[in-house]
Design brief:
The chain is of the alpha/beta class. It has helices spanning 2-6, 21-30, 54-58, 62-77, 115-129, 154-162, 175-186, 211-220, 259-268, 279-292, 309-328, and strands at residues 8-10, 80-92, 95-101, 134-140, 144-151, 194-200, 223-230, 235-242, 248-254, 272-276, 296-307. The protein has two domains: 2-31 and 54-85 and 302-328, no CATH class; 94-294, 3-Layer(aba) Sandwich (Rossmann fold). Helices cover 38% and strands 25% of the residues. A six-stranded mixed β-sheet has the order 5-4-3-6-7-10, sandwiched between helices. Strands 1-2-11 form a three-stranded antiparallel β-sheet. Helix 5 (115-129) packs parallel to helix 10. The chain is elongated, with a radius of gyration of 37 Å.
């Protein structure tokens, strides 16, 4: 009902001036004293004391049917119209591959609760903003694989992000493998812009593809790479060993990130390098990438109008008919 009313407008609203007559009609009917009921003279009223019928209770309000009918006629004269809006959205989206490091160092406690959980949460917020883009997900540690191919179903992407855990792959940091896997997913894309957001907290120490080689391949396919180094400066409480039951042992360790390599990758591909030292800075990084990579959207709005005056006209006629039938039958006044 609220949606119907919000889309309703009036082509001739000046007719609403006629509604000013309604208070006068109500006053004339109920308070002017001009209307006097018919009566009969009987010798004694004691036999009628306490007798009240529904007709007697309803009769004083019978004129309201006529007043409401006139109000509906005035609304009909104002030409109510229903605005039907149709939008056609033409979006030239961007293909985005998120590349997430799952090495054990992502459990370091310099972020609350750790680097991985914060990275997952901020990445999900970024995905939810990119309504018209195809987004995919690649994960890597000592090896790499595609967790989610490019898709416009962002719920799937966020579900995969939520499920990421350290230990899904052999430990290590194969930056080149992760980057090459993402490029392979983007190389055949026909999107006007293809970007990779590579997030890591370590130094390349695994995999059989050199990160610079992967960057050269990205450049060849016009893929722009934004690199994010995650981790505070100095030392952080990080995993240093693993017990026989699989639990990690933590101790203070020096944060080692190959920032020079990440800068080279971003420069080679016309991207940009970022350093995230806490959740706020990571959120700001994703916000900046969101601003830099704007999707072109063309929205055409079509409006058409449907006259709705008949509903009010017919409702007024119906009330007027009910008033006339009642006044001529069960509420008929005999003079």
């Amino acid at each position: 009902m609220m949606g119907y009313l919000s889309n309703l407008h009036f082509a001739a609203p000046w007719w609403f001036i006629g509604l000013l007559i309604l208070p006068w009609m109500i006053w004339w009917q109920f308070y002017s004293g001009k209307t006097k009921p018919s009566y009969i003279i009987i010798s004694d009223l004691r036999g009628l004391e306490g007798i009240t019928s529904w007709k007697e209770r309803f009769f004083p309000y019978l004129p309201l049917l006529k007043i409401f009918a006139i109000a509906l006629f005035i609304i009909a004269m104002a030409r109510p119209q229903l605005s039907l809006t149709e939008e056609k959205v033409k979006a030239e989206g961007i293909d985005i591959m998120l590349v997430m490091d799952l090495s054990s160092s992502m459990l370091s406690k310099d972020f609350d609760p750790d680097r991985l959980e914060v990275s997952k949460m901020v990445a999900k917020e970024f995905v939810e903003k990119r309504v018209h883009d195809r987004i995919g997900l690649v994960v890597f540690s000592g090896e790499a694989f595609t967790q989610c191919p490019l898709t416009t179903d962002h719920n799937i992407v966020t579900d995969f992000l939520s499920g990421l855990q350290v230990g899904m792959l052999q430990d290590g940091t194969a930056i080149g493998m992760g980057l090459a896997t993402a490029v392979n997913r983007l190389k055949d894309s026909e999107a006007k812009s293809k970007i990779i957001i590579l997030l890591t907290d370590g130094v390349n120490n695994a995999g059989y593809i050199n990160p610079n080689t992967a960057a050269e391949i990205a450049k060849e396919y016009n893929v722009k790479v934004y690199t994010i180094a995650v981790g505070t400066m100095g030392q952080a409480l990080s995993p240093v060993n693993r017990r026989s039951d699989g639990q990690y042992m933590f101790a203070m360790a020096t944060v080692e990130i190959d920032t020079e390599l990440l800068q080279q990758i971003s420069q080679m591909t016309d991207g940009k390098y970022f350093r995230a030292i806490d959740r706020e800075s990571l959120e700001n990084i994703y916000s900046e990438i969101d601003r830099l990579e704007k999707t072109e959207i063309e929205v055409n709005v079509y409006k058409r109008y449907k006259d709705e005056f008949r509903k009010f006209l017919y409702a007024g006629l119906f009330l007027l008919l009910i008033w006339w039938l009642l006044s001529q039958t069960i509420f008929r006044i005999l003079n």
